[in-house]
Specification:
Helix content is 42%, strand content 15%. The protein is an alpha/beta fold. It binds zinc ion. It comes from Pleionea litopenaei.
C-alpha cells in the first residue's frame, strides 16, 4: 500500500468523525446506493497522484461528480478535459487514436478513467462502429466485445454507456453485460439515454456499485446553456447531497468548466466516482460499527 493511499485513508477516517453519520447516510445519499455498498471492491479507492480532492473529502459539502464522455478522437480538447481544475471522471471511446495516451495523462492528474462503452441506440444506426454492442450479438460475442473494449483503455475503473437507448432497455443483454462487469470489478454509471433503461437495476442486482446520470451539461452546446445546466446540477447537489453531470469535450463545455469550476470549490466536493464510492464504503462501515456498540 502506497504512503499516498494510507494518507488518504487516514484523512477519510478523520472525516467520518466530522460527518454526522445519521444525516449523511440516511438522508443525503440516494437509497439505491445502499444495496451495493457491501460489494464495493478493492479497486476503490485507487492510489492516485496529485488528487485535487483530498482535503475536500474532510467535509460534508454536497458532492458533484462530473463525467466527460466521448474522449479519444480529438487530442487537443481531450487534453483540456484531463487538465480540468477539479477531480472529474474521463470516459474514453475505444478504438480512438488518443484514448490510451489521454487516459494515462488523466490518471496521473488524479481523475477516474472510464470506458465509454458504445451500445446500439434506437436511432442513428449510421453512427454504430464495429466495437459497439448490438442486439444481434450472442452472449459470448457480447462478452468478448466488452472485454476487447476494456483492454484498450489503461487504468479503467468503471464504465458508462455511449448512446445505447436500445440496448440499455433490454434486460437479457444488460444481465449478461453486468455479469461480466461484476467479474471485472468495475463500477457502472448509467448515462440514461432512455427513460426505459434497465441497466442500473441490472447492475445493482449483480452487486455492482452503480449510479445514474442526473444532468447533461451540453445538449444544446452554447456557453449560456452549459452554464445554466451546471447551475441546475449544483442546485440538485444542494438539495439531494450529490449530483452526477455528464458533459463532452466540446470547446464551449471546456471553457465554461475551466472558468467556473474553481469558483465552486469552497461550496462543493468535486469527486471521482471511485473516491465517492470509497467514502460511501467507509461511511457504511462506520455506521455498522457504531450500530454494534449499542447491541
Ligand atoms: Zn457518448
Amino acid at each position: 500500500m502506497s504512503s499516498t493511499l494510507i494518507f488518504r485513508l487516514i484523512l477519510l477516517a478523520v472525516s467520518l468523525v466530522m460527518i454526522p453519520v445519521e444525516a449523511s447516510v440516511e438522508d443525503a445519499w440516494p437509497k439505491f446506493i445502499q444495496p451495493m455498498i457491501p460489494k464495493i471492491n478493492a479497486r476503490l479507492p485507487k492510489a492516485q497522484t496529485a488528487s485535487p480532492n483530498v482535503s475536500s473529502s474532510l467535509t460534508n459539502k454536497p458532492v458533484v461528480i462530473i463525467i466527460i464522455d466521448d474522449i479519444g478522437d480529438n487530442y487537443r480538447l481531450g487534453k483540456r478535459a484531463t487538465d480540468l481544475p477539479v477531480a472529474v471522471n474521463l470516459a474514453f471511446l475505444p478504438r480512438t487514436p488518443f484514448a490510451a495516451k489521454l487516459a494515462n495523462r488523466g490518471f496521473k492528474n488524479g481523475h477516474d478513467i472510464m470506458l465509454h462503452l458504445p451500445m446500439e441506440s434506437t436511432t442513428r444506426k449510421d453512427l454504430l462502429r464495429d466495437e459497439a454492442l448490438t442486439q444481434d450479438l450472442t452472449t459470448q460475442e457480447l462478452e468478448q466485445k466488452f472485454l476487447q473494449n476494456l483492454a484498450e483503455i489503461p487504468h479503467v475503473q468503471g464504465f458508462n454507456n455511449h448512446m445505447g437507448s436500445l440496448l440499455t432497455a433490454m434486460p437479457d443483454q444488460m444481465n449478461w453485460l453486468m455479469t461480466v462487469a461484476a467479474e471485472q470489478d468495475l463500477y457502472f454509471v448509467d448515462s440514461r439515454t432512455t427513460a426505459k433503461s434497465v441497466a442500473l437495476q441490472q447492475a445493482t442486482s449483480k452487486g455492482i456499485a452503480a449510479l445514474g446520470r442526473d444532468v447533461f451539461l451540453d445538449p444544446v452546446g452554447d456557453q449560456v446553456s452549459v452554464e445554466n445546466q451546471l447551475t441546475r446540477g449544483l442546485q440538485i447537489a444542494q438539495r439531494k447531497g450529490m449530483v452526477i453531470m455528464i458533459g463532452h469535450p466540446y470547446q464551449n463545455t471546456m471553457e465554461v468548466l475551466e472558468r467556473l469550476l474553481p469558483n465552486y470549490r469552497d461550496q462543493f466536493q468535486f469527486l471521482t466516482v471511485s473516491d465517492y464510492l470509497g467514502q460511501q464504503k467507509l461511511l457504511a462501515q462506520n455506521s455498522s460499527t457504531t450500530g454494534n456498540k449499542h447491541q
